[in-house]
Amino acid sequence: MSEYQFRETEKKWQAYWEENQVFKAKDDFNQPKYYTLDMFPYPSGAGLHVGHPLGYIASDIVARYKKQQGFNVLHPMGFDSFGLPAEQYAIQTGQHPAITTEQNINRYIEQLKNIGFAYDWEREVRTSDPSFYKWTQWIFSLLFNSWYDLVDNRARHILVLEEHFEKTGNQLVKAASDEEIEHFSAEDWFNYSEEEKQEILLKYRIAYLSEAVVNWCPALGTVLSNDEVKDGYSERGGHPVERKKMMQWSMRISAFADRLLRGLEDLDWPEPVKEMQRNWIGKSVGAQLAFQLVDQEEKIEVFTTRIDTIYGVTFMVLAPEHELVEKITTTEQKQEVEAYVSIAKNRSERERMTEVKRVSGAFTGAYAIHPFTNEKIPVWIGDYVLAGYGTGAVMAVPSDDDRDKAFAEHFNLAIVEVVNEHEKIINSDFLTGLSIKDAQMKAIDFMKDKEIGYAKINYRMRDAIFSRQRYWGEPVPVYFKNDIPYLLEEDQLPLELPEVDKYLPTEDGEPPLARASNWKTNEGYELEKSTMPGWAGSSWYMFRYMDAHNNDAFVDEEKQQYWQNVDLYIGGSEHATGHLLYSRFWTKFLYDLGYVSVDEPFQKMINQGMIQGISEKLLRTKSRTNNIGVAGSKGVQLLDKEEFEFASLDIFSKEDLNGETPQLENYTYVYANINFVKNGVLDVPNFIKEFPEYQNAIFHTKGGYWQNGEYIKTVSDEKDFKTKSEVEKMSKSKYNVVNPDDVIEKYGADTLRLYEMFLGPLEQFKPWNTNGIDGTAKFLKKLWRLFHDTDGNFKVVDAEPDKKALKALHQAIQKAEYDIENFSFNTSVSTFMICVNTLTELKCNNKTVLSDLIRIIAPYAPHICEELWSLLGNEGSVSEGGWPTFNPDFIQEEEHTYPVSVNGKHRDNMTFALDAPKEEIEKAVLANPKVQKWIEDRPIKKMIIVPKKIVNIVV
Ligand code: ANZ
Predict the structure, then answer these.
(1) Residue 305: what pLDDT?
(2) Residue 115 in contact with residue 56, Cβ under 8 Å?
(3) For the chain, which domains are there?
(4) Motif location ('KMSKS' region) (predicted)?
């Protein structure tokens, strides 16, 4: 073998790892553990592109490094395999989503294995596998069987709550619950029917069923969670989303709000993700108080963060959906109010919140009494007040709140100043003269005395809607008896997905499960027809890897106590308010019930940046049909005889080409497949071969034009057809996707791995730019040559290593270790390159040095390192060969370069051995002609030599 043969070598070692289960995590509880996890992928039909493995490679390097350091490493991979794309494909084709999912997973596994990841494949999990979702359903059952105790601030079993009710009714219970639960005594409880009891319990359960306003997406036929809706459209597909009231399963995550907030403090997570969670949870400290309505029994409750401005309240505003609206609206105002309500209903919450300028509202005709001044103030409705936040009503202070002010100005309502420019309260009776803080305290004391209000903390985060009207998700293990939900017994789990004839909702709008012929229990009770959301399985999967095949528990207690939680989690920050919040919630819940010993799932997290694609655009004449987006896209219908002309970019001036749409009247940009472009030049003959619809098209260049694959010169030989390159998201529709399989085929997996790391810091966004990949491939060849002579013979010898080689090696060991510990992988790659260059220059063929070198490069480029490791005469995998010990003695400098100054002015640099005697330095410095020149003939007053620092001569 003269050159390094990556193909055989990579296959050989991948097979070796698999056969020998080298990366199997052991259940050896005496060894220190390290758990590194990638956010598991949804197996999409498109397979992996080079952007996907970026984070996986980083965590793989850490996993291999930790293994070499002696840790028992858990580094698994699995699939988040329930989800919408497989279902939509099923709707279109009739193919069962399980089949597509399986195919896609197989393709992913093949691709992942080609990259040589050190996964413990035995622990692979799939959320759509009944043996997995049995436990998702089991956790749902626990959530259904639990309530949140606000005294001890933890979840508890529902039986404990029932015991309270039996003893004292619900008066003394402090629990997170639905609003408006009537008080009942122990005796009442005793007398309630079974159904009445269940209805009450439902209002306390952590997984509960209630009528909720949801984001309904008619095009997808399902409800979406808040984080799946962006600007009033579904995140997937971009379909319009409306607000609709429906019976829905929800999760009482709001009960955990404060713990989710406080828990962030101890997590080693990127600050932006923590900040997003904080904002999402949205803690507000304020007060809640009631305004009595004039001539009516009801009161209007409001939540305010500025009770100090109470004397500035000149009117009130209710959300259009507020339940009192209908009741209090006077007959004269009825028509106007109803008209307004029906318009407001269809505006998305986000629009309502952000469009401060678009003021709208209606007067209800009703008045309320100001609780401090006893004055009558008008009650309005306006859609800037949201139904789901606080109490759905505000006390409006137009002097200090922008939205209230805009409303008051628009409708000509009174404005009273109550805070002056020094932030002191004015015009406010007994609050006048106080600071904002003091006024708040005093006002709250006053309200407490009068029993009209109290201090209150509000959270913006709502309970999470848990029902999806879809097929491809976990069935909810619930049946209905007299409309009351009951759990299936544990031994009836998993409740498997039924077969259906179509994956669509039924004609009367019921979810697809309603199509199943007998979706009932054995006793004939109807089963729940909605399925769980995408986030159910991913909220607990990190525990399943600890014990992936357990049929008796979701995870064995002892195993969980050993593995604890994830030490390093790598994935995208786009999950900040979805998966990363829900999995924290479920972990805290399981912790409360004693099923896990940790209350946070992911101790440290890193968000990898995105690898962007470089798209190539061509200037082409506009189509008469106007439906052309992509050059060379075979699916596009072209009009007969439509002939296009293309123009090389360098024909036009910069101004003409500016922006997305060129200023040239007849031209537009179309994407070209990046495979036909090299260094910004289109391979015209091959491009038209692939896309015959452009066979007759003319491709103008500076010097002439191309037609039918021939260049016709009109002016000169300038025949390059230039494209416009642009960095964009990697995507099929932009024809800029790079497949890792192709890179591996050409350069090998080790090169791919090294190159992805070399591209830049892990967290950064960076374009996939193949220009540098040759350099990485060359580096590996150079590494190989270090071990071989020119004839390809292995030339490493066992001998005493030389000092310079040891120094180069230990500098690299120190840096590699520091870099991995700090997740700076790109800098290590350059370190390896420098080290290999130095050792090549030194003609180092020393076994000790090269063995250590291999061990530090192995996590990055494992295949070549395995091969060299075995050539060095070692048994087994290099991943079991330990990590070299850094020895600081070897990198001690032996010389120092001194700046030499005369009278404090720097004149030259001189290098001396560290142990050079002072006299020798003095002599050499004074003999230096550059120094002599500045001394001239003056006598030396003093000569200062600070060892390892400076030399200064005073004359
Ligand atoms: C009087 C006031 C005066 C207010 C002032 C603010 C400034 P955060 O901090 O986000 O919790 N508010 C309460 N419920 C609302 C709802 N359902 N829809 C829209 N706005 C609502 O905001 C709390 C403040 O937002 C509350 O304090 C209330 O207006 C308003 F100078 O009350 B404030």
Answers:
(1) 97
(2) yes
(3) 28-139+535-607 (3.40.50.620), 148-275+464-527 (no CATH), 283-459 (3.90.740.10), 611-728 (no CATH), 740-880 (1.10.730.10), 895-954 (3.10.20.590)
(4) 729-733
